[in-house]
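hey so u asked for the seq, here:
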Amino acid sequence: MRRSKTFRSAWGDAGHKYGAKKYHSNILAHAFKMGLLQHAPPDKFDSIGEGKYAEHLFARQQNGEIEDLRFQVRVDLSINGVRIGRRHMRVDFCYLEHNFSGTVQHRVVYDEFKGMATPEFKLKRDLWRAGAGPSVLRVTKANKSRAVPYTHEDNWPANLEDERPK
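ran it, structure tokens below
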């Protein structure tokens, strides 16, 4: 059996191809065992920031702000039912958000945690904005300030612009 090669940096340590360290969340693993999470979290997250943000979303779910938190959701990118080549996107998190406006009680939010935007992600984000995505794509970045730990950028598909909050 042939093993796949792992990335090794110039210092010889194995890790992620962009230099991020993998992160295992004991909090989410325990919550899944106890039945507090409906969907299993991944064994390891791609970065420490993504793992910490997953724990933040779990806390929001426990507070009742969101529900049905899912991890590593595959989304096919299509416009008017026509799939765009083999383009799909694996989004880090998906959940239902409560009370985002007076008329709609819930909305599906696809949330992608990014330390840095790769060219492939920028292409998929632009396809999402053009109308290929099914709902809003929230791009989350870690903020250096401790007062506000995360910053968000919402990307709405072109076909849902009228639902966008003003």
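Strands lie at 7-8, 14-15, 66-79, 82-98, 106-113, 136-142, 150-155. Residues 1-13 have pLDDT under 50 and may be disordered.
lmk if thats what u needed
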